[in-house]
Amino acid sequence: xxxxxxxxxxxxxxxxAFHPNFFEKSSFDFFMKALKRxxxxxxxxxxxxxxxxxxxxxxxKYDIILLANHHPGAIPTILDGIQNLDVPVICRTGDQHFVxxxxxxxxxxxxxxxxxxxxxxxSYFYKFLPHDFMYQEIPLGLEPSLYQNLRPYKERIKDxxxxxxxVGKLTIKSRVANAILNPKRxxxxxxxxxxxxxxxxxxxxxxxxxxxxxxxxxxxxxxxxRSAIAAATWYPTQKYWExxxxxxxxxxxxxxxxxxxxxxxxxxxxxxxxxEKNYKDKFEAFxxxxxxxxxxxIANAGRQHAIDNLTNDNATEKLVEVMKKLL
Length: 327
What we know:
By secondary structure, the protein is of the alpha/beta class.
């Protein structure tokens, strides 16, 4: 039997994404649950109080060092002795547009990072980080057990399309203010199609109240509707595979700009692809004939694709393959 890969996960005890009560549980589910389930690795958790960790205690005991995130709030400032360890270092990364703001590009040499992984497409990663940094696209966050026993498709709302997540305000005043005060950081910038879809009378959007969805947990909330919108301007978000897993017909923004083809969805087979020019026509084709069986077939195929290819267990397998490359 092949020996398990011994992995040391290092993170700050205050890292909000690893707290079980944090509203967005994708990181907790992946790192604290899914990694434990994989039979090819043996993971140890090093929760660090403060900003100092002595890595010499890992010498000779671990094959891989895994860093929680390419973010100052996720890992200790000082990983003492890491330069002297002959152990590959892998780091999760996201929100690469904040690299300059957070001054994290220096982490690469400081922590001797060999490989990065995250849900964003390679094109977005390399838009902000050097091309000699190794990066693997690994969509994560979908915990399959949460997407079982949901409301059947035929029992769902069919005369509305769900739109969830952050959106920009529709007033001209808000757009102008964001363009001046918050350029390239506003909901209009990241979620333009999601935002303009809210103008339509048949689109439902109740968003969030504080840190929670107004209605139910997210999978249950999604399963109230036959169809839902997954739209992000620059890169696909986790909603793309969550909405599909909930059995919704997904109106999915896939464009050259957001480079979402790596997710493997196919237009007219596992999702309905939309863009800023055709979205109204696509929505209305569904709403004018909501009981056409083809919509349910596409929704079911999209769900199967997400459950077969885009769960946390799939993500763990892909991460293990990265580990094997480095060993």
